[in-house]
Design goal:
The protein is mostly beta strands and about 100 residues long. The protein has one domain (about 1-105): Jelly Rolls. About 0% of the residues lie in helices and about 50% in strands. The chain has no helices and nine strands. The strands form two sheets. Strands 2, 3, 5, 6 and 8 form a five-stranded antiparallel sheet that branches. Strands 1-9-4-7 form a four-stranded antiparallel sheet, with no helix packed on it. A hairpin with a 7-residue loop joins strand 5 (about 40-45) and strand 6. The radius of gyration is 13 Å and the shape is globular. The two termini are about 15 Å apart.
Length: about 100
């Protein structure tokens, strides 16, 4: 599933942002964020209506899918349109990785 690998890397984020939307074939995926969060969070969002409305990918099996401290989280994604969202931040400096969990993220 290498077609799922998406890199989003911006260590000079000055505030909240959304990555460009991308298509995901689905499957086991991982989200990692490292650096200074500035009080906010990094999360994956999903759209069911051609990018008009975005929903946070919710906890799965009791495991949060949003990150508020450096680390990684893994979950199962359905096929669709996704984006990485950085929200509630003040002066973050983050490196964010998102991709197929079996690619060694």
């Amino acid at each position: 599933m290498r077609s799922n690998v998406v890199f989003f890397n911006n260590p000079n984020v000055a505030g909240d942002l959304n990555s460009p939307p991308f298509n995901l074939a689905g499957g086991h995926v991982a989200l990692g964020a490292f650096g200074t969060f500035g009080g906010g969070s990094v999360k994956l969002q999903w759209s069911s209506d051609a990018d008009a409305t975005w929903f946070d990918v919710g906890p799965q099996g009791g495991v949060a899918t949003a990150l508020t401290v450096p680390g990684t989280t893994m979950f199962v994604a359905v096929p669709g349109r996704y984006r990485v969202a950085v929200v509630g931040t003040t002066g973050p400096a983050l490196k964010i990785w998102f991709g197929d969990a079996r690619d060694g993220g």
